[in-house]
Design a protein that fits this description.
- Helix content is 54%, strand content 4%.
- It is mainly α.
- The strands form two sheets. It has a two-stranded parallel sheet with strand order 1-2. Strands 3-4 form a two-stranded antiparallel sheet.
- The protein is flat and about 155 Å long.
- About 3% of the residues have low confidence.
């Protein structure tokens, strides 16, 4: 079975199994690993690797598919509990896979910040189960940091899309939903009904609720909204400051580069064989075109200076190497003696 057909065949069933597991974990209203592992064993979730795949190539492709689907549940826009369940699910799938060497989990660098923020939030809330599982994954070198969460192929447009389950989506405006007009009206009606029942049955001094409960709820929601807006404004201000600093540094670098290019543009490069020689700049008052540079003359040698000072002879004397000490008047001495071998 090809990778494309395997993805189309197993994507929807495995995604429904993952959502069933996370849905049961969501009903526990807990982020403890003990609760998740109990649901995992109850569903026998590790048996997903005992599918109909036979060859090692199909098993490895199916394992990559499971990690690709489970990887989506640890990222926004899912709620904190679902993301923790996704992390637990990745931990279980990695340790129960049936291939060797074990397949690593591809994680994009753009998503690494969201994963680190999830772990930081869990650690600040003293959810040490989440922090421990994450450290176990890091120590086992489970993650493979890549540019994209999936490999780019020519069939990228035909991939199955991952639809977000609305039941698992994180609701960021829960305080605003609590302080909505309908909710405040409902609280006000219940509070008035309670006051009427209290007046008819118990003395007025024995009240256990606040008199202006609706106003206090609305005030708390408004203060919380102001606090969120303040944090968002500070983040935006810091981001603008960083971008302005980067723009200033880039403009300064461009200015320095322009100055260097102008200064280096006036220098004329000589030939490679003449770069070690010194040049002199020739200035002329006339308008005629003359050479700007000329080569510096070398000083004359000792032989040239000697001939110039003492005079060069018209005809150099020719001497015999074997008659250096013989006078010129001795004509007979110019003739070499006939040296013959001794005869017996």
């Amino acid at each position: 079975m090809s990778r494309k057909k395997l993805c189309e065949y197993y994507w929807a069933p495995f995604k429904s199994d993952c959502e069933e597991l996370l849905g049961r974990f969501q009903q526990t209203e807990s982020v403890r690993y003990e609760e998740f592992s109990a649901i995992w064993r109850e569903m026998d979730f590790s048996s997903v690797f005992l599918s109909g795949t036979q060859s090692d190539h199909e098993k490895r492709s199916f394992t990559r598919l499971t990690f690709t689907i489970a990887y989506r549940y640890i990222l926004p826009p899912y709620s904190f509990q679902i993301r923790v369940g996704g992390l637990y699910m990745i931990y279980g799938l990695y340790n129960t896979q049936s291939i060797w060497p074990k397949e690593k989990i591809r994680i994009a660098l753009k998503d690494w910040y969201d994963v680190q923020k999830l772990i930081a939030d869990a650690k600040s809330c003293q959810h040490l189960d989440v922090f421990y599982i994450f450290k176990r994954l890091l120590s086992s070198k489970v993650f493979c940091f890549t540019a994209m969460p999936q490999k780019l192929t020519f069939e990228a447009s035909e991939r199955v899309q991952h639809n977000v389950n609305e039941e698992f989506r994180d609701r960021k405006n829960r305080v605003a939903e609590l302080a909505s007009i309908e909710m405040l009206e409902e609280i006000s009606n219940v509070h008035d009904h309670y006051e009427k029942l209290k007046k008819s049955s118990v003395p007025p001094s024995s009240g256990v609720t606040l008199l202006n409960l609706t106003y206090l709820v609305q005030k708390c929601a408004f203060e919380y909204q102001q606090w969120q807006d303040k944090i968002a404004a500070e983040k935006e201000k810091n981001s603008k400051k960083e971008t302005s600093q980067k723009s200033e540094s880039s403009s300064r670098a461009d200015m320095l580069a322009a100055i260097k290019s102008k200064s280096y543009g006036h220098v004329t490069k000589g030939m490679k064989s003449r770069r070690h020689r010194q040049v002199e700049k020739v200035t002329s008052g006339s308008g005629t075109d003359q050479a700007l540079f000329r080569q510096k003359r070398r000083p004359p040698s000792l032989r040239t200076r000697t001939w110039q000072n003492f005079g060069k002879p018209s005809k150099p004397e020719q001497t015999q190497e074997w008659l250096l000490s013989v006078m010129e008047e001795d004509k007979n001495a110019l003739k070499r003696k006939d040296i013959r071998r001794f005869k017996w």
